Amino acid sequence: MFKQLCAASALTVALAACGGGGSSGSGYGGPPPTGSTPAPVNAPLTTASLNGSPGFVNSQSRTVYVFDADLGTPNASTCSGACASNWPPVTVAAGTTLPSPWTSFVRGDGSTQLAYKTRAVYTFAGDGAAGQANGDGITAFGGVWHIARP
User: Fold this and answer.
1) CA of 118: how far to CAs of 80, 101, 113, 133, in Å?
2) Residue 138: which of 76, 54, 73, 63 has the closest Cα?
3) Within 10 Å of residue 40's Cβ, how many Cβ atoms?
4) Is 14 helix (H, G, I), strand (E, B) or coil?
5) Distance between CA 31 and CA 12 in Å, rounded?
6) 69-88 pLDDT tens trace
7) Band of the pLDDT at 135, cuts 50, 70, 90?
8) Does residue 124 contact residue 135 with C-beta atoms inside 8 Å?
9) Which among 8, 55, 76, 95 could disulfide-bond with 147, CB atoms 3.0 to 4.6 Å apart, if both were Cys?
10) Domain coordinates of the chain in residue numbers?
């Protein structure tokens, strides 16, 4: 676990939560305003205590999630359209070198999504403040959402 926490702490790549490609907008915390998408920002993906156990958070301490519907195909996302508006993918700049067990893949919209142990990671528009985990255990868009944990 220490090795995983170190890898998570050392991960300083361009991360952003967005619902689609693009290069302008405003950071994390929910779906982007109409007509814009968040620009990637340099920030570490770290851990925090979420619902009593360590879980991943982005640079604004927003909880990061995984989606059970993605389990069928490693390094892929089944969440797009309205799903991605509610569960914005955590993205990295194309070509970013990531430490193991982090990977990335190209989404259908052309953006590059971050994955942990081949599972795509997302934030949740329903988390209104740092440290909230309102999306944990929700069944929506064909699967159950869980806090991404090391």
Assistant:
1) 18, 8, 11, 22
2) 63
3) 23
4) strand
5) 23
6) 999 999 999 999 999 999 99
7) very high
8) yes
9) 55
10) 2-147
- The answer to whether residue 60 scores a pLDDT higher than 80 is yes
113 in Cβ contact with 105 (< 8 Å): yes
Q: Identify which of 130, 121, 111, 128 has the alpha carbon closest to the alpha carbon of residue 149.
A: 121
d(CA 22, CA 89): 13
Average pLDDT of the segment spanning 87-101: 91
Residue 115 contacts residue 104 (beta carbons within 8 Å):
yes
Q: Alpha-carbon distance 24 to 116, whole Å?
A: 26
If you search the block for the tokens 């982090």, which residue do you land on?
A: 102
Write down the pTM of the prediction.
0.73
Structure tokens that stand for 125 in this block: 């528009």
Angle at 16 between CA 50 and CA 87, to 5 degrees: 60
Contact 121, 66 (CB under 8 A): yes
Tokens at 42, concatenated: 């340099």
Range of lowest pLDDT (11-15, 52-56, 135-139) = 11-15
